[in-house]
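ok trying this again, last paste got cut off
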Amino acid sequence: MFWGKVGDMGRIRRMAKSMGINTYQMKKKDVIRAIQKKEGNIDCYGTSRVESCQELTCSWRDDCLSLDQKMKSTT
């Protein structure tokens, strides 16, 4: 099933809804972590775990690495 662009919040919410996750008033990182958990994966999106991430097949990896770079550049 096509959900749209990876970082698109609408796509992420549609994906979560299809899994039975209520995303009302949730931030992007919290929705993604809920999806990760529902999939049986480590719910680590946007955490310090990115420093040692070996989850090469993670759907969120590129977005998470990008988020980490953005966070580092603002500090």
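PB: full thing came through this time. DSSP finds three helices and no strands in the chain.
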